[in-house]
């Protein structure tokens, strides 16, 4: 089919349901002013579906025209896409360079492209979209993990960043791996919401991406305390863990010294009479029982 230009009734023009942008009213007043002062410098790109025209490019111009009560709009009619994958392709290629999609809308678009391509590899998709493989992965993971209502507006106004949302997601998955009972008892939704609140309170930075110290070494009680206190900083938790580690090392060293001193004292024991020997033997038997008791306690700690 050869593309052509036509003026059509605006009621027959329909926004594309696959378009990532949900709100077409963004900067609508400015767009209306442009249409009034400069007219239609560029038609709306559509394809026909029965009597209707499905938009591929020009959603904001269409919305502005609706607000201006226009009866007809210029439509550049092109060949209809053969499938969903091609339609997404064309939506991105036609609009991507012209429309300032939000980070969330780009994430949705990337996810839809990936899904409709049969879940192509991230490297293939990166080549297709002209972006890095890591950005493809972040967009897909963030779109799948977070509800739109939780992140879209805050991504748009810069309160959240896509990379930090991806880091938080990966950290939560580490909690699931290393503290599964806690993860199950709290539930993913609550953990996610708590971490987003802590993100807003600046309780951690991008180093959370490589946090393998606290999340893997701390006990579940410490993880729970960090998650439930929305003002507790990850850096403080890591510092407390390091102090505890130092204290434990000091305790171990002191215990080793104590044992050595006991051994040395036993070696220095002397007796001059049978009566002294009997008394010492009785004391040593008591010591052996204490050693056996302590050995059993240590064995239980190691087993558990």
UniProtKB/TrEMBL annotation:
Q: Which Pfam families match?
A: ParB_N (PF02195)
Keyword list, A-Z: Coiled coil
Q: Which residues form a coiled coil?
A: 274-304
Domain (ParB-like N-terminal): residue spans on this chain: 6-94
- Asked if the keyword Coiled coil belongs to this entry, the reply reads yes
Which InterPro entries does this entry report, sorted A to Z?
Answer: Chromosome_partition/occlusion, ParB/Sulfiredoxin_sf, ParB_N
Q: Which domain of life is it from?
A: Bacteria
Q: What is the protein name for this chain?
A: ParB N-terminal domain-containing protein
């Amino acid at each position: 089919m050869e593309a052509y230009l036509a003026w059509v009734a605006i009621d027959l023009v329909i926004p594309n349901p696959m378009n990532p942008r949900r709100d077409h009213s963004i900067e609508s007043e400015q767009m209306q002013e442009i249409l009034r002062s400069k007219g239609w410098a560029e038609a709306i790109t559509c394809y026909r579906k029965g009597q209707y025209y499905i938009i591929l490019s020009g959603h904001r111009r269409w919305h502005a025209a609706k607000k201006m009560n226009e009866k007809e709009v210029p439509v550049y009619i092109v060949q209809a896409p053969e499938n969903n994958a091609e339609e997404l392709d064309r939506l991105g290629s036609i609009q991507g360079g012209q429309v300032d999609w939000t980070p969330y809308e780009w994430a949705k678009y990337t996810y839809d492209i990936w899904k409709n391509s049969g879940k192509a590899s991230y490297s293939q998709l990166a080549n297709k979209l002209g972006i890095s493989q890591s950005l493809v992965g972040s967009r897909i993971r963030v779109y799948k993990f977070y509800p739109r209502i939780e992140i879209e507006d805050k991504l748009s106004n810069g309160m959240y960043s896509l990379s930090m949302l991806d880091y938080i997601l990966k950290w939560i998955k580490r909690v699931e791996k290393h503290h599964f009972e806690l993860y199950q008892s709290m539930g993913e939704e609550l953990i996610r919401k708590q971490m987003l609140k802590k993100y807003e309170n600046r309780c951690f930075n991008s180093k959370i991406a490589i946090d393998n110290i606290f999340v893997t070494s701390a006990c579940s009680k410490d993880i729970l305390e960090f998650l439930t206190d929305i003002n507790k900083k990850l850096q403080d938790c890591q510092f407390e863990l390091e102090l505890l580690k130092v204290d434990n090392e000091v305790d171990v060293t002191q215990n080793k010294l104590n044992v050595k001193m006991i051994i040395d004292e036993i070696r220095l024991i002397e007796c001059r009479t049978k009566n002294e020997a009997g008394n010492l033997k009785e004391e040593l038997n008591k010591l052996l029982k204490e050693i056996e008791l302590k050995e059993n306690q240590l064995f239980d700690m190691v087993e558990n």
